[in-house]
Design goal:
Chain lengths: ~150, ~650, ~200
């Protein structure tokens, strides 16, 4: 092989590899994005059914109930405007409390229940997870526009 | 008074950093030896003042001086002494000071161990480090002064975040910072070389041990951090792909590419401009990582809003450091083309391929980490990019890396015969695939991931053994021990680190394939069967600690009637912040961990207990230990020391005549 | 200078452009939906005399601050000296809204508590905290269940609302008030409102 064509092959191979890698990254990115919705958006039908997404908001006061096995937990998550019932099986994070911000990840079942596979609570005692705060803020903005 | 002294020391360090940044650089440009000679004393003086400032801050924490804002926010009079000391860096301002301290430590190390380098080059290296230090100290003095007072003082402090009150967190941040900051030395060597226009094998050789040591620290830091996450976060995971972890993983990926690229530059003179770019990139990602974690931007992009000055300063610092070095690169790099040419099948090609893949992986991690932040900052909606994305990218991109990693050492530099190499390695490759399938069948978990993981692990282990055997066959006449001792430390370093990857893959694959988890409610006397073990719940008692109250459960684990372990997980509430914490208990073994954590108490008095069986999880960290040992051996290779001695002797001779 | 060596620099500058743009959008200045709207009315028990209530209307005719606080809130302690100083200077009356004193505290479980017991505990904790850190408030009211806080759109404690003579919210500050915020934002706004009529 001439040095020139060798070099060409090397460059071509490198570029091919790079293109394949970038394509892989982008398609993985497309497929694995987890979108975030507020309870209001979910009830407006903006959230996909059968696809994983996140909901943020406050855990409604008095809504936490445990089933007899002690492990399945039902609670409701609210942005102060709308409420979504959630069921979750597993251990809850240390900072999960009624009236506090939380983010749940999972899928929406046809009966309107959100089946969470993951529950995230806020990081410290002062602020909510940003997504939860965002949901409450959105709901209040919307509320303000309605009342005008 | 002590905090004021600390503040004053910081100002003095700033002044010396300015001297260190300017005078030696000007001296090197004008070839003025007396100006260049300022570099060392300035760096050492700066070190003195920074360590003094750091000591003052630590003193305020130890003595619980809550008239110091930082101590009031991150310490408590009941906090154990150890965590008072580590509380110093468990916050934004203190960790910046730790950053500066380790930068200063590295700089002093350079002044001490690089006496043999040309004076002008050394002056530039120390000058570049001076600029970096200047930026950091200015950042502290302008926006994040650790010595701010709280007047009137608080009667009691708020305590260190309980998550950080753990032995793992005592060593994790210093290790990680030594790693991050260590890349600044590689960066300074690259910039100094760009400035002198002398990017040759000598530069690569000088830079290599420093880069390797930094990589060792970073590897160890990441490993300790992941071990901490495993036993402290209470749900048994060891890597979460969360932004904080990614922030340390990105520089690791580019740093790994850099140490390999430096090897090629040293041995073959090739890849020079690519190596420089990697050195700049690894350091840039270290800077980015520090700021991502420390600015709070990850917790909330809006963290900057509380203090926009901080965000803007960070951005300006990044722009100056990275922008100027990339500009310099664009100006100087065109002169660097050339170097040793190499054939399509050669060790260079495998290293180049892996380098490109490492760069792509770190770019994809960067994208997954920053993209949600961008969208949020621009108010375009909120998304999250979780582990599925990173796994989908990481596995296919790293598979060829692992294959090539074992292929490379069998190939000669410059040019080799593809057919011969394949024939040499074909038995190992076939054996790997067979054992991959075989073990997957044996553990009854035949998924493509498990088979791939086990095949790769077998490939690394088998090819490593073949490589060692081949090396021992050289010099056939000598005894085995003398043949072993003939192998240079650097080769052992390479071998061990690569072997460690194999061990690591075994751990990851086994845990990912056949770990099991059972959550259940238990009360005193309850018993359950789990993963072949019998677990009996022995009730919960109150167990107050120095600064927390705890409920401590006792669980007896036995197998076939033989007691194996008594585990005592806790649920703690830290008094100062009222923050609850789960403290898991582990029985660690070579082939499996049994991991227990305590959930909440149910109204009827029962407890939720979470049981985990984690096969081979220790192998993950064993693999990391191999990598670290490999790095240490590679950096300690005799030829670097010989080089130092030779040039020092030559220097002495010159002075004598 | 060959163009291809400028590629890394160009990519980097693009990244910085995005980042800088993102940072320049200050989300804290996104106006709250309540700005320039009448403050939600409330009547709540007073912390100093729990038998008596205090209503929002009682402040009509004055420019005043409503500061949301709780003893479990760490950032409140940070801003507290600023408020004490503000009160000492007598620039503006400050009313404290003690928010979810017991329920907000992650270390305490208020679910099983009777309301009386909870109120008693809240009063004890809140008063103790004010004794320890100084009391800048003209008075504080108890928002035990956090309903008033929700009406005000509180999502992180502390928050501070500036309310005008007609009872309209004119400005909202999220997070601890720093001496800098006070001097450059709050006080000018207060002076402006005082002059306005």
């Amino acid at each position: 092989m001439k040095p020139r064509s060798k070099r060409l092959m090397l460059v071509g191979g490198g570029v091919g590899l790079l293109v394949a890698a970038v394509a892989l990254v982008l398609s993985a990115f497309q497929q694995n994005l987890v979108f975030f919705h507020t309870p209001t958006e979910v009830l407006e039908g903006k959230a996909p059914t059968g696809k994983t997404f996140r909901i943020g908001g406050l855990v409604e006061d008095g809504s936490i109930q445990r089933e007899a096995d002690g492990l399945t937990v039902r609670f409701a998550i609210t942005d102060t405007a709308k409420v979504i019932p959630v069921s979750y099986r597993g251990t809850l994070p240390d900072l999960f409390k009624e009236g506090k911000g939380a983010v749940v990840q999972g899928t929406l079942s046809p009966d309107g229940q959100f089946r969470a596979t993951e529950v995230l609570a806020k990081h410290d005692e002062n602020y909510m997870p940003p997504e939860a705060a965002h949901a409450v803020e959105q709901a209040q903005k919307a509320g303000a526009t309605v009342s005008q | 008074m002590i905090p004021e002294l600390g503040h004053f020391a910081l100002v003095m360090a700033f002044a010396l950093a300015l001297v260190q940044a300017v005078v030696p650089m000007v001296g090197a440009a004008r070839n003025n030896p007396s100006m260049m000679a300022v570099a060392r004393p300035a760096a050492q003086g700066q070190f003195f003042f920074i360590i003094f400032a750091y000591g003052c801050l630590t003193w305020a924490f130890i003595t619980s001086d809550f008239s110091l804002q930082l101590a009031a926010s991150n310490s408590h009079s009941d906090t154990p002494l150890m965590y008072k000391i580590t509380g110093v860096w468990g916050n934004h301002e203190g960790s910046l000071l730790l950053w500066s301290l380790s930068l200063s430590l590295w700089t002093v190390a350079v002044t001490v161990f690089s006496r043999h380098l040309p004076e002008a080059f050394m002056a530039r290296v120390i000058g570049v480090l001076g600029w970096v230090s200047l930026g950091f100290i200015a950042f502290m003095l302008v926006t994040s002064n650790p010595f701010d007072r709280l007047l009137p003082g608080a009667p009691e402090g708020r305590d260190l975040n309980p998550l950080l009150q753990d032995p793992g967190m005592i060593i994790h941040p210093p290790l990680l910072y030594m790693g991050y900051v260590g890349f600044s030395v590689a960066f300074a060597f690259a910039i100094a070389a760009l400035l002198t226009g002398r990017l040759d094998a000598a530069w690569a050789r000088w830079s290599r041990p420093w880069t390797t040591v930094a990589w060792v620290f970073l590897t160890a830091g990441i490993a300790v951090g992941s071990a901490w996450a495993y036993y402290e976060l209470g749900w048994g995971g060891w890597w979460f792909w969360d932004p904080v972890e990614n922030a340390s993983f990105m520089p690791w990926l580019l740093g790994t590419a850099l140490i390999h690229s430096l090897a090629v530059t040293e041995k073959r003179g090739a890849f020079r401009s690519w190596t420089v770019l990697l050195a700049i990139g690894a350091f840039s990602l270290s800077l980015l990582g520090t700021f991502l974690v420390r600015s709070g931007v990850i917790t909330s992009v809006h963290a900057f809003a509380t203090d926009p000055a901080r965000g803007m300063f960070i951005l300006a610092l990044l722009v100056v450091v990275i922008g100027v070095s990339l500009l310099l690169y664009a100006w100087r790099a065109p002169k660097l083309t050339g170097g040793g040419s190499f054939g399509l099948v050669s060790r260079e090609t495998t290293l180049l391929g892996n380098n490109v893949l490492f760069a792509v992986v770190s770019a994809s991690v960067l994208m997954g980490t920053l993209y949600p932040l961008f969208l949020d900052a621009l108010n375009l909606g909120k998304i999250s990019v979780g582990p599925p994305y990173f796994e989908a990218v990481f596995v296919p991109l790293m598979t060829p890396v692992v294959v090539l990693m074992m292929f490379g050492p069998f190939l000669r530099w410059k040019d080799d015969d593809f057919g011969a190499a394949v024939r040499k390695l074909a038995p190992a490759a076939v054996a790997s695939v067979v054992s991959g399938f075989g073990i997957a069948l044996a553990i009854d978990h035949v998924t493509w991931r498990t088979v791939l993981g086990l095949t790769l692990a077998a490939w690394v282990v088998l090819a490593s053994l073949q490589l060692l055997a081949g090396r021992l066959r050289e010099r056939a006449g000598a005894s085995v021990s003398s043949r072993l001792s003939m192998i240079p430390a650097a080769w052992w370093g390479m071998w061990l680190a690569h072997f460690g990857i194999g061990i690591f893959i075994i751990g990851v694959t086994m845990v990912g394939s056949i770990d099991s988890n059972l959550d259940l409610r238990m009360k005193d006397g309850d018993q359950t069967e789990f993963a072949g073990y019998t677990v009996r719940f022995r009730g919960v008692v109150d167990a107050p600690g120095p600064n927390y109250d705890a409920s401590r459960a006792t669980l007896e684990v036995s197998r076939d009637g033989k007691p194996i372990a008594t585990l005592q997980p806790e649920k703690r509430v830290y008094r100062a912040m009222g923050m609850p914490m789960t403290e898991a208990a582990l029985d660690i073994g070579v082939f499996r961990d049994v991991y227990v954590s305590l959930g909440e108490q149910l109204p009827e008095g029962d407890w939720i207990v979470s049981l985990h069986h984690k096969p081979f999880i220790s192998w993950i960290w064993a693999g990391c230990i191999f990598m670290v040992l490999g790095g240490i051996l590679a950096a300690a290779d005799r030829r670097y020391r010989r080089l130092a001695e030779r040039t020092a002797a030559a220097g002495a001779l010159q002075q004598a005549t | 200078m060959k163009a291809k060596f400028l590629v890394p620099l160009a990519l980097f500058l693009l990244l910085v452009g995005f980042l800088g743009f993102g940072l320049s959008l200050n989300p804290r200045e996104v106006p709250s939906p309540l700005i320039d709207k009448p403050a939600p009315a409330f009547t709540l028990a007073r912390l100093d005399q729990p038998a008596q209530t205090f209503a929002l209307d009682e402040m009509r005719g004055q420019v005043w601050l409503l500061n949301v606080w709780a003893s479990w809130c760490v950032a409140c302690r940070q801003e507290h000296p600023v408020l004490v100083e503000l009160a000492r200077r007598g620039i503006v009356p400050i009313v404290g809204l003690n928010y979810k004193e017991v329920r907000g505290d992650g270390g305490l479980d208020a679910r099983g508590m009777a309301l009386d017991a909870e109120t008693g505990l809240a009063i004890e904790r809140a008063r103790g905290w004010l004794r320890a850190h100084g009391d800048p408030y003209q008075l504080s009211v108890l928002d035990i269940d956090g309903r008033v806080g929700i009406d005000f759109g509180v999502y992180g404690v502390p928050e501070t609302f500036l309310i005008d003579r007609e009872g309209r919210i004119r400005y909202k500050h999220i997070g601890p008030v720093t001496p800098d915020n006070l001097q450059n934002v709050l006080i000018p706004k207060i002076e402006e409102l005082k002059r306005a009529s």
